[in-house]
């Protein structure tokens, strides 16, 4: 195989550091293992962030996410770990990770975790007529 899972995230310089703008990334094929049964858990991850100086490089994100395929993890733990790893790599002004896990035993789980840089305030929303 030409590619392998990775536990590192690469970044690149934000091309518009003076502006607050949102980057939204959807990862529809996230998988990890249930730590109790070893069965696969499937989720869609949505990363939304306002970068500061760095942005996450998408291929490295894909390989990073692939690294969870054979790891046992509770939904809450894996969501917070991914958020922390992304925050550590990019140091964003704001980041939200939403993990929507598929049904297991009749129960759906959604975990939402957020990070705000110290002192950062979101801009006022604009309402258009």
Descriptive report:
The radius of gyration is 16 Å and the shape is globular. The chain contains 2 helices and 6 strands; from the N terminus they run ββββααββ. The strands form 2 sheets. A 4-stranded antiparallel β-sheet has the order 2-3-5-6, covered by helices on one side. A two-stranded antiparallel ribbon has the order 1-4. It has about 130 residues and is of the alpha+beta class. It has helices spanning about 60-65, 75-90, and strands at about 10-15, 25-35, 40-50, 55, 95-105, 105-115.
SSE succession: EEEEHHEE
Identify the quaternary structure here.
single chain
The N- to C-terminal Cα distance equals: 53 Å
Strand order of the largest sheet: 2-3-5-6
Gross morphology: globular
Query: Rg to the nearest angstrom?
Result: 16 Å
What topology does this entry show?
Blueprint (H helix, E strand, L loop, with lengths): L10 E3 L9 E11 L6 E11 L3 E3 L1 H9 L8 H16 L3 E11 L2 E10 L13
Antiparallel strand pairs: 1-4, 2-3, 3-5, 5-6
Annotation keywords:
129 residues; alpha+beta; GTP Cyclohydrolase I, domain 2; two-stranded antiparallel sheet; 2 helices; 6 strands
In short:
With 129 residues, this protein is of the alpha+beta class.
